[in-house]
C-alpha cells in the first residue's frame, strides 16, 4: 500500500494517478507546469478583477482622470498575481494536474 504522507494531494485528497504521472516526467517539467498553471490562474483572476471594476469612475487615489484606468489596470495585475501565488481559487491545481497527466502520457 502506498505511503499517503508522500502522495501528492489533489483537492484535499491523495491522488495516486497524479503520483504515478509525476514519476514519468522530469523535475524541470513539474516546475514548468506549476509555473504555467499559476500564470494561467493569474490571467483568469486578472480578467475577473478587470470585469469587476468595469464602469467604475472616480474611485481610487487619482479620482476620475486619464491615469485612473492605467492605475486600476496595474492594481488588478498585482492583485491577480498575488492571489494566484497564495493559492488562488483552485484553477491552477486543475491545470497543473492536466498538464502533468498529458506530459506523462506522451512519455
Automatic annotation (TrEMBL):
Q: Does the keyword Cell membrane apply?
A: no
Q: Keywords on this record? A: Cell projection, Cilium, Flagellum, Glycosidase, Hydrolase
Which top class of enzyme applies to this chain? hydrolase
The reply to whether Hydrolase figures as a keyword in the UniProt entry is yes
Q: Which residues form the Flagellar protein FlgJ N-terminal domain?
A: 47-97
The UniProt entry, under InterPro entries, shows: Flagellar_prot_FlgJ_N
Q: Which GO terms describe its molecular function?
A: hydrolase activity, acting on glycosyl bonds
The signal sequence is none
- EC number in record: 3.2.1.-
Offer one Pfam family short name for this entry.
Answer: Rod-binding
What NCBIfam families does the record point to? PRK12790.1
Would you tell me the protein name for this molecule?
A: Flagellar assembly peptidoglycan hydrolase FlgJ
Q: Which organism is it from?
A: Bradyrhizobium septentrionale
Gene from which the chain derives = flgJ
Amino acid at each position: 500500500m502506498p505511503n499517503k504522507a508522500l502522495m501528492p494531494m489533489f483537492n484535499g485528497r491523495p491522488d495516486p494517478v497524479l503520483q504515478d504521472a509525476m514519476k514519468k516526467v522530469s523535475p524541470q517539467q513539474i516546475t514548468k507546469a506549476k509555473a504555467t498553471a499559476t500564470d494561467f490562474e493569474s490571467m483568469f483572476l486578472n480578467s475577473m478583477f478587470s470585469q469587476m471594476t468595469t464602469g467604475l469612475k472616480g474611485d481610487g487615489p487619482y479620482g476620475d482622470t486619464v491615469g485612473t484606468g492605467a492605475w486600476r489596470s496595474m492594481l488588478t495585475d498585482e492583485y491577480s498575481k498575488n492571489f494566484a501565488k497564495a493559492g488562488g481559487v483552485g484553477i491552477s491545481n486543475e491545470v497543473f494536474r492536466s498538464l502533468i497527466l498529458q506530459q506523462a502520457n506522451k512519455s
